[in-house]
Amino acid sequence: MKKTALLALCAIAPLALAAQAAAADVAPADAPIATADAPVTASEVVVQAQIAYRNRTEETAPVLEYGLDYFQRFEPLTAGDALKRVPSVAFLSDVLESDGVRLRGLDPAYTQILINGEKIPGAGSGSGAFGAGADGSFFVDRIPAELIERIEIVRSASANRSGDAVAGAINIVLRDAYALDGGFVRAGAMMFDDKRIRETVGGVWGGQVGPGRLLVGANIQGRRNPKQKLSLRYDEPNGTLDNSEVQTDVRNGTDYSVNASYQVPVAGGDLELAGFFVRTDRLQDEDSIEYAKDIRTSANIQTINNNDVQIDQDSWSLTGKYKREMLGGRTSVKLGYAGFKGKEDEFEDEIEYLRDAIPFPDGDRITRDKSRSKIDDTEFSAKVEHERDLSFGAELEFGLQYEKKERDTLFTEVPRNRYNLPATTVPAFGAYAPIAGGDASFEQTRLDPYVMLSGKSGALKWEAGLRYETTDVSIEDRTSGDTYDNDYKELLPSASLRYNLTDTDQLYAATARTVRRPSFEYLSPATLEAELGDNDFVGVPTLKPETAWGLDVGYERRLGRSGVAGVNVFYRKVNDLLELYNTGAEGSEGDGTFVYSARNAGDGKVWGVEFDLSTPLTFVGLDNTGVFLNYSWLDSDIDDEFGSRKFNSQSDYVLNVGFIQDLPTWGASFGATYRKQGEAYSRVVGEEVTTTYGGDLEIFVEKRIGKDITVRLTGSNLLDASKKESFNKFTTIEDQVDRSFDEYELEREQAGPVFQLIARMAF
After folding, report:
1. Is the N-terminal amide bond of 422 cis, ω within 30° of 0?
2. Is the pLDDT of residue 134 over 60?
3. Span between the terminal Cα atoms of the chain, in Å
């Protein structure tokens, strides 16, 4: 932990002790627990009566549950911001970004992200808003935190859930009609390091409407992320500096969201209708200047680059679920329809200087590129599930789940516009045309039956099940007229045990076979230029899925009335790994860039230890002081062309530590949290990358006004966190083995503090 973080925490801790002493004679209020029969009132949501801790679930499978009130006092903007505080969640994003969840440090594609227990279509162009990277993983940095009721970390799979969760699953549960009685409004502003201010406003209401209950919510969230980058490029480590690049990167946009849920009794059963919609309007503006050596004067400018990406994305989901007693048990039918539409317009303008000895502008050159991508995803899902009690005290659950995903992609670009200076006229851009493989359609159909037995005997709870997943994929490349088909079937057993040693101590164990399917991006024959940094990417339609056997074993102890501590050990054996690799072909950006692809590349192992603590300090008489600590040690092993290494970009560890001090007599509270994740290393043919992050310190101060108003000031990234990357670049495998460098690059990215002032009022 950095010295500055320790000083900050040490400076605040004595205030907590003094304030606790002043309020020692005031008993903490008991917060009611929301159930389907007793929704909490809006004032109880806005004005938190006590500190919230990790929820303790009674599920047989190992699940960690966190209510929104666990995160809310630090005012997370998105689900990604909230997830930064839970065990084993790492990100490899830019500073101040939290998009692709790396549960247990693994690539985002290993983590199953669910919304209300269901997957949702995403992008795949690498930009976000319910989107994904090139591996088809799900981005969470556009899900507004205001929509969330709770977040569940599911460490091991069960037969009644989709098996594509090698690292585990994260279920983001949105507020439903039984979550709230009354309403509240939220308004505030954020100030960023460049002194720009962005707005946030929203509201939620829930109550009785007709025979059922209705919840509606809406949110408008201004987003901004100004960063500074510096790159230094050498011929080799500790060698001669060839050039340097200074870059500004500003991402500015607005997210709009609405959600609704209606639950009503119908014909002896319960009907639930729900939906949400999220729109993202975002501009990514990157400007850079490259200098010869590290002499940053006009005479040494090599290139000036302007790169803008306009992103417009819409995501939505509609679901209907009906459940009632029938056929000797409980039967539910669920239908869902979800969609994603994304459009990106990218423009890049680069001026090259010093191409010869002739003074500017003679002999200099301008290169201009324009591209456009459109993605249209839809998904229809249907489930029929039945539960019934058996005579010997167990419960039988079985069902059939159907899912059909369709995607249309259109990646187009104009012919490169390049001309030398001086120029009397500027050439016009040509017309957009599809890139190779860029006009394509994908269709994936799944039909997954499952059966599961569960039961309880004394202090022991157990479940065991089988899931049989069938997948059919078809791809049509409209640019070439080619079609590809791929299908596979996987049997996925799972089992979990939970044993109560005492009223406060539990042991559990879980094992499951899981699968990672090749994403549409990995299967697409399109060559995506500059998709991986300056490198291109092309998919392979014949890839097989990965499979993995996993084991989780843990211990959990209840601490007093509200606290909990736990430790978990996990292991995964992964077969037919899906890995990126360098084909050796030269990329579209010229010398030193390559075309990457994906392949099934052998086997690997992943293991680690996860500890979490969430408790008030009641045992030392500090009832109104809550502390939070989670630490995950992560490791893995895989063999590639160069020997043994960890899974690419897996962090060595993830640490979160913090406290909240409540001041009941003053109607106030304050707290701090510190986050740090360890070094991550990645190696493919042609490139090796080591990434490190600085620590992130966040502090909040809250004042409650009466029973209905809360005002909260938060500061995040108070240590000016930086992301540092070192790139070892090689031309051939032989050069990489011999350590004969093509280039060695050091890159540093840094952003400043963000301050938020947020007020909520219940009504």
Report:
1. yes
2. no
3. 43
Q: What angle do CA 56, 58, 63 make, to 5 degrees?
A: 65
| Beta carbons of 673 and 660 less than 8 angstroms apart | no
C-alpha to C-alpha distance for 258 and 277, rounded to whole angstroms: 5
Let me know: does 338 contact 378? Beta carbons within 8 Å.
yes
**Which two structure tokens, joined as six digits, stand for 691?**
């990434």
- For residue 107, the SS3 value is coil
Nearest Cα residue to 276 out of 261, 292, 264, 298: 261
Tell me if 442 sits within 8 A of 530, measured CB to CB.
no
Average pLDDT, the chain: 88
Whether 639 shows a pLDDT value over 70: the answer reads yes
pLDDT in tens, 678-694: 999 999 888 999 999 99
Domain ranges of the chain: 37-762
Alpha carbon 411 to chain centroid, angstroms: 25
> How many angstroms separate the CA atoms of 143 and 83, rounded?
11
Structure tokens at 188: 């505030």
What is the three-class DSSP state of 737? helix
Give the CA count within 13 Å in the CB-facing half-sphere of 419.
10
160: Cβ contacts below 8 Å, ≥ 6 apart: 385, 397, 399, 450, 452, 465, 467
> Where do we find the tokens 């954020």?
190
Q: What DSSP letter does each residue of 324-371 carry, written as one string? A: EEETTEEEEEEEEEEEEEEEEEEEEEEEE--SSSSPTTTT-EEEEEEE
Question: What CATH class does 37-762 carry?
Answer: mainly beta
Q: How far is CA 475 from CA 444, 487, 523, 576, in A?
A: 9, 12, 8, 22
